[in-house]
Amino acid sequence: MSDSESDESHLIDNTTSLNQLERDDGAIVNYSQPSVPDIIASNVGMLFIISAQFFSACMYISVKILNRLETPVHALQVIIIRMAVTFLCCVTYMIIMRIPDPITGPKDVRSLLITRGITGFFGLSGVYLSLEHLSVADATVLIFLTPLTTAVAGSILLKESYSTNQAVAGACSLLGVVLVTRPPFLFGSIPNGGHLPEGTPAERLAAVGACMMSVLGNTGAYTSIRAIGKRAHPMHVLTFFSLWCTIISSLGMIVLNIPVVYPTPWGWMLLFMVGVFGFVTQTLLTMGLQRETVSRGVTGMYTQVIFAVMLERLIFGVMPSLLSIVGAVIIMSSALYVVVSGHGPRFCCQSSVLIYIGPTR
Predict the structure, then answer these.
(1) d(Cα 208, Cα 143) in Å, to the nearest integer?
(2) Rounded CA gap, 269 and 116, in Å?
(3) Where, subcellularly, is it found (predicted)?
(4) What do you get for the CA distance between the two ends of the chain, in Å?
(5) Edge-to-edge strands of the sheet including 353-359?
(6) Mean per-residue pLDDT for 156-173?
(7) Which among 138, 298, 120 has a CA at the least distance from the CA of 220?
(8) Which of 17, 175, 188, 300 is 20 to 30 A from 307 in CA distance terms?
(9) What are the residue ranges spanned by the domains of the chain?
């Protein structure tokens, strides 16, 4: 080899080393600037979670339409119908796709799956029960304490990182929720706000307790999903959630002697839509939380408020106020900040194959 070729080769090696580092095992790690496809690939879990919030908002809009057209259906009956649809969809899918243990789930995570199912029931039922004596705004603000408590639980129980930046983003998102919902206990009485009767102080206190039950239930459910990770198929997680919700709700209606309401065909269609939207929501949410840390993942759940405002405007003609718009901007900005706040994607180049291995944390 000539001296010029040797010098040229030396220059190329030096240039390459500026963007690459060699690990102890000999693999080359490339820290080049991420492209748009790289950002999407590294945040696919967050995108699943944000998509889930859209379908969740559709589900609550369906419930709102149902309550306007029919005799009110008890929360436990709504849960039974919704979760029965989810359970049948999950089992049918797993049987068709020949996924092992469609009902019992993988043996090594069954206890976590049961924990997810039971805690998920309390998270779901708490928000429905709280709306009997709390306004939607009050309940929403209280329920959205879940991302903060879940991030702390993930940090303590799962030893996941929880940075100061993520805490600030979570606090800003909660501020955005407050601005969007404008709860009367903070902003006073709002004329024509459409709030439900608040009941007696004792009933309101019980409703606040139901919200706290929902927060704790959701915290346990989301933390369990993260602990399960990819050791179980997402349909296994949904199967246990829907099964335990159906069982506990049925027992609750029997013990509390709650009558079954038979709506019109249109009402049954709305209930079926609640089940379908709920199934899609839980599927996307489970897939997202299996790919994201708890602290990052739950931040994307705040976007549900934005979708709810948009759908209410489209279906019910409700015009969001300036405070709602400001709050929505804060929520979306916080979620986007969490998405792009990583140090950049990592690439592992081994055996002449460039393999994307995710962002640094």
Answers:
(1) 10
(2) 29
(3) Membrane
(4) 44
(5) 20-22, 28-30, 345-350, 353-359
(6) 78
(7) 120
(8) 188
(9) 45-341
